Amino acid sequence: EDQVTQSPEALRLQEGESSSLNCSYTVSGLRGLFWYRQDPGKGPEFLFTLYSAGEEKEKERLKATLTKKESFLHITAPKPEDSATYLCAVRPGGGGATNKLIFGTGTLLAVQP
Amino acid sequence: DAGVTQSPTHLIKTRGQQVTLRCSPISGHKSVSWYQQVLGQGPQFIFQYYEKEERGRGNFPDRFSARQFPNYSSELNVNALLLGDSALYLCASSLQGAVEQYFGPGTRLTVT
């Protein structure tokens, strides 16, 4: 069964304190791993797509990496405005035309000044 | 360019009633997907439509249905509402052949 597990569930950091969020996955034929940011009461905001092991993508203080079993979202010197829930999702293979995403439950990040 | 838009923003319904949620994709996007997000959980896939045809369906009962119009906008209908249908309903659009999906702000449905 296709599954995504994120850890930790919640993370509290001091401003400037770097850390990493984990996303482990089990999927039949990965056709993309996605990171989204979600603010309370709003829709997810697209951050990154990763396709193959060894791939890395960066955006401002965020860097996403991918292995065959997991992905990490590294946050360098975070600021309070980085506080949000970070969602990881995979798009399974297995044929068919659907672009269905399977999401984890997210990591709630709080960055204190 | 405008992003994905959804209406209404909030909705309160009574058990047993029916509801229709609406979504307009980003201009040029022909694929629309619907997700349900219960508080504290990640979004769960309900439907995908592309060129007005259903391309995928998640593990939801037949009370849930959807359609896509010639202008690529979409409606999600839920009949015989249950308390457990209370959630944030998200619409996402994507370009033909693209994997990235862009989400709207969602419709918060409360069933009492």
How would you describe the overall organization of this protein?
The complex is a heterodimer of chains A (113) and B (112). Chain A has strands at residues 3-7, 10-14, 19-26, 30-38, 45-50, 56-59, 62-66, 70-75, 84-92, 102-103, 107-112. The termini of chain A are far apart. By secondary structure, chain A is mainly beta. Chain B has 112 residues and is mainly β. In chain B, the strands form two sheets. In chain B, strands 2, 4, 5, 6, 9, 10 and 11 form a seven-stranded mixed sheet that branches. Chain B has a four-stranded antiparallel sheet with strand order 1-3-8-7, with no helix packed on it. Classes of the chains: A mainly beta (113), B mainly beta (112). The A-B interface holds A 4, 31-32, 34, 36, 41-46, 49, 87, 89, 91, 96-106 and B 4, 31, 33, 35, 40-45, 48, 50, 55-56, 58, 88, 90, 94, 99-106, 108.
Question: What are the main properties of this structure?
Answer:
heterodimer, A: 113 residues, mainly beta, 6-stranded mixed β-sheet, 11 strands, B: mainly beta, 7-stranded mixed β-sheet, 4-stranded antiparallel β-sheet
